[in-house]
Amino acid sequence: MSVWQVDRVFKRDSFGRVERLIHDDGRLLTRRVASGGRAPFSAWLARFLARREQRALQRLEGLRYVPDTVVDEGARSAPCDGVIPKSGDVFLREWIEGTALPLAEELPEDFFELLDELVAELHARGVCHNDLHKEPNIIVGLDGRPALVDFQLASVHEAQGRSFRARCAEDDRHVHKHRVRYTRDGRGPSEAGEGGRGRGKRRRPIAFLWRRFGKPVYLLITRGLLRMRDGAEDFRPSTGPWPQWTPPVGREVMK
User: Are residues 56 and 70 in the same domain?
Assistant: First the structure.
């Protein structure tokens, strides 16, 4: 009989948990279990965010370097701490093998160029990630190419209106911000820090207000009152160590 087991819990908070499952044949999956805590409406919000991520990934189905959703009843019902999650509170996605950007020891010289292209593919399908300021959401794959995870804040757009264009610009700006941070002051080859879709784009007024006033309140509520943690540092420390740069890996056809 084939068995799925919880291999690792990456995040556990008032909105549920994110886990890696392992099959007895070695296969891996990521499972999000949406469940509420003591905070009012936390269960509803957890399910809302899970459905939001699932909708975005379904729109991106088949795009290489973005996880596909998965249907597997055995994985859905695998117990964690002896408890079987409710089927309606669970969704599964592919496990993407690699290293989170802040932990990567090597980067190909064309990494951020390839990341720009991947984000452009999202936008071409009407999806904005909306959480690319977090370095752990950017994965350095085993082949050195970038992949993206954690789409719970992603938005799906049917029309390319003002809101869509503004959110695209924010995604691009965050990628460019990472590019500059990883290449400035001699941290990387100068050509790796040139160009980029987000170059010259400024933070929107609403984004400025969020960072100045909204985010401190959000952190007080989530990390102070709700004891939420992302499970990884948001950024590589400014003191490093910074990754070594390797030859370009080149483009690969999206699936």
Answer: yes
pTM, to two decimals: 0.84
pLDDT at 127: 98
Domain extent at residue 166: 96-255
Q: 3-state secondary structure string, 13-33?
A: ECCEEEEEEEECCCCEEEEEE
- Of 75, 95, 115, the residue at which a domain comes to its end is 95
Same domain, 76 and 106: no
- 192, with CB counted inside 10 A (0-12, 13-18, 19+), is buried
Query: For residue 169, how far is the Cα from the chain centroid?
Result: 17
Give me 190's structure tokens: 């100068």
Q: Which of 78, 95, 112 is the last residue of a domain?
A: 95
Dump pLDDT digits (tens) for 202-230.
655 655 554 555 445 545 555 555 555 54
**Three-state SS string across the chain, please?**
CCCEEEEEEEEEECCEEEEEEEECCCCEEEEEEECCCCCCCHHHHHHHHHHHHHHHHHHCCCCCCCCCEECCHHHHCCCECCECCCHHHEEEEECCCEEEHHHCCEEECCHHHHHHHHHHHHHHCCEECCCCCCHHHEEEECCCCEEECCCCCCEECCCCCHHHHHHHHHHHHHHHHHHHHHHHHHCCCHHHHCCCCCCCCCCCHHHHHHHHHHHHHHHHHHHHHCCCCCCCCCCCCCCCCCCEEECCCCCCCCC
Matching residue, tokens 């980029």 = 196
Query: Strand 28-34 relative to strand 69-70: parallel, antiparallel, unpaired?
Result: unpaired
